[in-house]
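#dry-run=false #mode=assembly
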Amino acid sequence: MELLNNLKELRKARGLTQAQLAEAAGVSRKTINTIENRVFIPSTVLALRLGKVLQVRVEDVFELGQKG
Amino acid sequence: MTVEKLQTIRRWVFLIIGLTCLLYAGIYLVLGMSDILNPFLPGVIGLAGGLILVIASLIGGHSVAEAVFDEMSRAEWGRALRFGYWWALALYPVFGLLLWRGLVDQTQAFAVMGTLTGGVPLLYYCWLDMRGQGHGIVE
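#status=ok
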């Protein structure tokens, strides 16, 4: 199983930059960048916070995908 | 003080402390003496670096400091510490061998191992931090 995310699409749809989303979620721009690029898997707390900032459910941001 | 500025300050502070430790260890290992660098230099640089970080965080305020020391940063610091732990353990057989062969004395081994143990996690964190900056396009 791997964790997929639609963070970049959702962020762009709301006209937010990585820096703006980072500020709203209380993390660094690098953290948003590495989540979007699937380098870093956020905690449940941060995932929920991102969903709250983007006004979507956490399942709309993150989903499980089959690897391979 | 912005998040990026505080991140840059942290990176430079860690880099300077790490390189000072590395330099001290290198000089002591190669030349076998600490006369060139003051033995308190790595410690003083480390304390000064910590003070700079505290002051910069206070100037930046709670939200900036929280964003800079967020969970990604803590995860990378954890990785750096884990690397530093195994690195420190690996130094024991290496310096045990060097001591046994008479290539270094105990004072030299103590000074080199101590500064390398302190400096390497900081440098590894800098590498992780800089590597993470390059992913994707900033929009």
